[in-house]
Design brief:
- The structure is a single chain.
- The chain has five helices and four strands.
- It is α/β, with parallel strands linked by helices.
- Helix 3 links the parallel strand 3 and strand 4.
Length: about 120
């Protein structure tokens, strides 16, 4: 497949969603990342909350080829805890959509992630 000169490599990722570490661990290596949810009580969906403790579950992770992305209830108050407990990244939905100042919340979340990543170097 030929790509335009400005895109020397394919600009695509392959992802999926999972709801248990067993499902995540069983993924084939052709996924770049997978969402694992819900980590916390959802901000944007009523009655959508974790039935298990994902911070305990993630200790059973055996799939290190696929990045695991925390989803569900992630906001500026729990990003650092989420990353410290073994998630590779976080996804924001309700924290932005349901916020009175979405851009401010996004920038705060972004800064928290960047500061965490810098502290890991």
């Amino acid at each position: 497949m030929a790509f335009p000169a400005r895109y020397p490599k394919p600009c695509r990722s392959k992802s999926t969603s999972t709801h248990s570490i067993a499902d995540f661990n069983s993924l084939k290596n052709d996924f770049d990342y997978a969402f694992l949810s819900p980590v916390f009580k959802s901000i944007s969906k009523d009655n959508y909350e974790p039935k298990i403790d994902f911070f305990e579950e993630i200790k059973l992770r055996t799939n290190h080829e696929t990045k695991v992305v925390a989803l569900g209830g992630i906001d500026s108050n729990n990003i650092q805890t989420t990353l410290k407990n073994g998630f590779d990244d976080i996804a924001l939905l309700g924290a932005i959509w349901n916020n009175k100042k979405p851009l401010t919340e996004f920038k705060l979340c972004q800064q928290i992630v960047l500061s965490f990543l810098q502290s890991q170097v």
